[in-house]
Each structure stands twice: as structure tokens, then as C-alpha cells.
Fold these 4 entries.
Entry 1:
Amino acid sequence: MIEIAQEELSDYEMGMLNNLRKWIYEKRRKALKVIFKKNKVSKNDGILDIQVKLF
């Protein structure tokens, strides 16, 4: 039987996947920055002080 699947991606496909990976990383970083701006960060341990808003 003939195998249709490729064993490796082409350089173009690898480039496209890397661009997608970088785009996803940038979007996650931007979302984290928004969260940090909205919530107060504890100076002692760097953890978000969300607990204050819950009570």
C-alpha cells in the first residue's frame, strides 16, 4: 500500500507553523499584561491578589 502522509514538513510549512507559534505567544503575553494591569500584584511574592476581590 502506498503511504500518502509526508514524513517531514516543507520549509514553507515550518515557517508558517513558527509564525503561528509566535502569534499565539504574543497574544498570550498581551492577555497576561491586561490581567496584570487589572489586578494588583503582591510585591512580596509576585502573585496576583485576586483573593481581595472575592470577599
Note: The chain has a mean pLDDT of 80.
Entry 2:
Amino acid sequence: MHSQQKSEGELLAILGRVFAIVILLILLFYLGFSYFNAVSKVGQQNIHLTHNRLLNVLGGIRSQWLIQGQPTELTLNWQTEIEPNDYSVSHVQMSSGGWPIPSETNVAGCRQLMESLLGENYQQTLITKYDFSTASCRYIGTAGGSINYQTISGRVIFLTEEG
């Protein structure tokens, strides 16, 4: 009888451990799912911030284009608050409507345009495509959102995968 009670005790201890492991796995699964869902949202936020910055930069560039008498090429001087002595100069070609256009009508031209407008670090996080039929550059974020810049009209379309 003592042997049977000992066996039942060991069986209950093993069952308790299995139950604890199952609960732990469920908790880890939930935390992992929440983490990867949050990573996706951060990626969407990144493309959203890039979109807002692009809109602000395009508005500023168009204003400078009008102030400077509508030149065919505009010189951009960029300076950051982090390093005030560090600035970069880039040149962009302008359309007759006052919008920056790529120097080449291909993916390389769109990459160069985004680098001129927003800086080199944006090329690391965006996939670039060029649509010949609409003369537009499309920048796709790692989380799936995209920015479509129509070079003729200056129109910027922001798309996300949120439902």
C-alpha cells in the first residue's frame, strides 16, 4: 500500500510539472505573439514618419523654388540639430510645376531623389520601385506600408496594410 501511495505521489508531482510547463508555454506564446505584433506596428510608424517628413520637405522645397524664381535645379543645404557643424549639400532637378524629379527615370533615380530629399539613412529601410506609366517613385517600408510620389504632379500617396 505504501508503494502505491508513493507512486501516486510521484505521478501527481510529474503531472504538476507538466501542467506548469504547459502554462509557461502558453504564456511565452502569448508574449511572443504580442512582441511580433508590436514590431510590425513600429515598422508602420516608421513609414508614417517618413511620409510626414517627405510632405514637409516637399512643401519647403516648393516654397524655395517659388522664392528663387522657379529654377530648373535647386540646391538643398541640410543641417541637423544633433551636429550643427555637419551639413550636406545636394542638388535636385525641378519639374515645371515646382516638384523635385529624379535625375533618371528609373529605380536609381528614385533612390537618389529620396537620398537628396531625406538623407542617406532612409535608403536602408525602404525598397524603391519606379512606375514608367505614371512617372512615379514608390518607396515600400519593411512592414509593408508604402509611399507613392508622383513626380509630375507632386502628389504623395501613403498606403498602409492596416484594415
Note: The longest strand covers residues 87-94.
Entry 3:
Amino acid sequence: MLCRYVHGKTVQDHCETRVRPQRLAARRVNELLCIVRSYETSSEDADWLDEDKVDASGLIIPEPSSSALQVPESECLANPWTGEQ
């Protein structure tokens, strides 16, 4: 316990930090696709993070998309490059 006291006050053993994303792109079970801006490189990165590690206050949380196929399976498996030209 090297850093037990700082400026005469006790330090909490576990400091919880939450990520504040620029926006939320998608949602799946217990995870959010967060768009996080890096100010050092002026770039944006997307990462899947647990919901409890994200500060989403004031952001619109997207509904999870259904995992059902929107296109019939036979159409997905069809080869578009066969047939007459």
C-alpha cells in the first residue's frame, strides 16, 4: 500500500472511470459500439465496450438490431455470377 494517503487524505483502493464517447453507433447484448475521439491525433475510433463502463448520459442509445436475416437465405446463397450474360 504505497499510495494509501495523498495530501493527508485516504485514497480509494479502486477508482472507477467510465468512457464518455462522442456518440453511440450500435448496441448489442450488454455492449455499446462507442465512437471515441482521440484529441492527440484528431481521429475517431470505434470500440465495443460494456454498458457499465460507458457514460451514456445525454446520448441516444440505439436499439439492438435483430439478428434475423432480412434477405431470404436462398437469395443470400445464390451465386450472382452464374447464368446467361
Note: The longest strand covers residues 31-38.
Entry 4:
Amino acid sequence: MVRRSQTSNPRSAVVLTSGADWRTRAAGQRRGSGAEFPLPRRQAAKIKALQQTIGVIRMAINAKRRPQARYMLSRAGALVKALPADLTTQEREQLSLLRRKFEAHGTAAAKSTKKPKSIPAARSGGKKTAAKKSTATATQKPTPAPMPDLGNRYINRAALGYAPADEA
């Protein structure tokens, strides 16, 4: 029998377990998928929860918190299923990009997935910025400086302990 108590409080309940039941106890504990969380009732609240979830997924993937990202992706999937498709087109696109980035994991594709630039809706007033011109020097790679010729160098092997002193 193993004494299972993590506290030093004498009034706390002490559970005595035998070593044989550890496997069954671990099997009974399932990892939460995120899909079983309670959904908000109103549609506006569901959309807001979905947008917050997408933000958390993005942060978790960038911070390389894969378990959190996996949980939140399943939560976002449950929210998307609960909402009509015509209201969640942008969110679905963002989720598919994030899912692709999550599945790519350590590959080069994970670093290259970027959001497509969306054309902003008609703005009311405000400044319009001119498009920046790309310079040709920015696209060229700088060439490394040539290595100087150092000639033949004499290494005193005897001083380094590789050869007897009388040979040097």
C-alpha cells in the first residue's frame, strides 16, 4: 500500500492505494478536448467567444504552447459548428490558416504561412498613405568580404605538447 497525501495537514483525508490500480486510474482520466465546454447562449456572444479563441490560438502557436493550441482549436471548432456558416466565413479562413500552421509544426511551411491581406472596407475619411517603392538594393544579398591571404603559418607544436621539444 502507498500513502497518497500531498499535504502536511493532519485533518486531510489520506487515500491508501495499491500499486496495481495506477493504470486504471490513468485510463479514467481523459484529456479535455475543449469541445465539451459550455457554449454561450446568444449568437453575438458565440461570435465574440470565437474571435477571442482565435486570438488565443494565434498567441499559443507563436509561443509554441502546443497543448493549449490543440485545446483551443477544438474549442473553436465547436463554436464554428454552433454558428451559421455565412456569419463565420472570415473566422473559418483564419482557423484553417492557424490549423495549417499548427500541423506544420517545426517545418519551413509553419514559418511561411501568412494571412492573406484583406482589403479594408470603405473607410470614412482619414489619411491615405502612398505605396512604398521597393528598392533594388534591398532585394540583393550582400556579398561576403574576401578572406585575406594569411600565407603559411608556423605552429609551434612543441609548445603545444604535440611533438618533442628538440624537433622544433
Note: The mean pLDDT is 75.
